[in-house]
Design a protein that fits this description.
The structure is a single chain. This protein is of the alpha/beta class. Helices cover 45% and strands 13% of the residues. It has two domains: 205 residues, Class I glutamine amidotransferase (GATase) domain (Rossmann fold, 3-Layer(aba) Sandwich), CATH 3.40.50.880; 103 residues, Arc Repressor Mutant, subunit A (Orthogonal Bundle), CATH 1.10.10.60. Helix 1 runs parallel beside helix 6 and helix 6 packs antiparallel against helix 7. The longest helix is centred in the first third of the chain and has 20 residues.
């Protein structure tokens, strides 16, 4: 039987992550019991205190055990911790050496949504791919630059370390873990029971690009604003460097450092974000939108759009535009 530790952090945590993980993993045991089989999981809520108030005292969680009571576990689940992540980490720093110790003893560790911040604080994600809620991906990159943040991913899996994307994508990670521990048939049954869209590959279609401007380089910010206001024009690195009186090489380095995008990538993302808004509302077809955001080649537009969003323009329009009555040409 595998021992699963669902952490109960101090401060404000995702009750949905905690209860959802408990309920879904417990259902595996229910299914097995109905077949006359032994349970697969021994699930415990593991905390730092006997009582953990949540939502300003509206709820209180009583962990089954404290971390010092758990000598060995097989899987640690870290729920999303809300609010300022630096403060949340400081409140829950006692978890860090315990997680490291358990991992060294063979435990696997799964973080849900922005629970990745606590997992990264252990150093275990250094050099490894990971994901989190796309809205905090840039903050994560600044805080933990040695981890390989890939915000488009729904799930990451390497060396017994798992992370999930934003919000309810934690459900996909739970089903993924169930498949690993209990097999594909059980994973499908659980996914159907809880109406979870199994094997979802990416959170790219949900990402809203607003630029990465929480930095201190004013000239790079000005360049970002210029791109966003003039994306229909042809914008080159040399043009921007001359405009802000910076050498091209220095400008490229600074722009990449503070935005995590090359200039070309940034222009593409601005154009695609504009295209997404046009595809979500109104009755313009894909070709009209393509020209309206500055592309003239159908294949190029389709390839760039799909690379960034994970969907073709027509699939995106059909998914998000209620006014679509019939598919338009791809």
């Amino acid at each position: 039987m595998k021992h699963i530790s669902i952490l109960i952090p101090l401060g404000q945590s995702s009750l949905v992550n905690i209860e959802g993980s408990l309920q879904i993993l417990s259902e595996v045991n229910v299914v097995l019991a109905a077949k006359g089989k032994e349970p697969l999981f021994n699930i415990q809520l593991v905390g730092l205190a006997q009582q953990v108030p949540q939502r300003n005292g509206l709820f209180t969680i009583t962990p089954d055990v404290l971390i010092n009571d758990v000598q060995k576990t097989d899987l640690i689940i870290i729920p999303s911790m809300q609010g300022d992540q630096a403060k949340a980490l400081e409140m829950n720093r006692e978890f860090v050496p315990w997680i490291i110790q358990q991992y060294s003893q063979g435990a696997e560790v799964a973080s849900l949504c922005i629970g990745a911040f606590l997992l990264a604080a252990t150093g275990l994600l250094n050099g490894k791919p990971c994901t989190t809620h796309w809205m905090l991906a840039d903050e994560f990159k600044r805080t933990y630059p040695e981890a390989r943040m890939i915000p488009s991913k729904i799930i990451s899996d390497e060396d017994g370390l798992y992370t999930s994307g934003g919000a309810f994508s934690y459900l996909n990670l739970l089903v993924y873990l169930i498949e690993k521990y209990a097999g594909r048939e059980m994973a499908i049954k659980i996914a159907k029971s809880f109406v979870i869209d199994i094997d979802k590959p990416s959170q790219s279609p949900f990402i809203i690009f607003e630029g990465q401007k929480e930095h201190t380089d004013e000239e790079v910010k000005n360049a970002q604003n210029f791109i966003e206001q003039n994306y229909l024009e042809k914008i080159t690195i040399d043009q921007l460097a001359d405009k802000f009186a910076i050498s091209s090489r220095n400008f490229q380095r600074r722009f990449l450092k503070f935005t995590n995008n090359t200039v070309n990538e940034y222009v593409q993302r601005v154009k695609v974000e504009a295209a997404k808004r046009k595809l979500e509302s109104g009755r313009m077809n894909v070709t009209e939108v393509m020209y309206d955001v500055g592309y003239t080649d159908t294949k190029t537009f389709r390839d760039v759009f799909k690379k960034i969003t994970g969907l073709t323009p027509v699939d995106y329009r059909n998914k998000y535009n209620k006014q679509v009555e019939e598919p338009v040409g791809r």
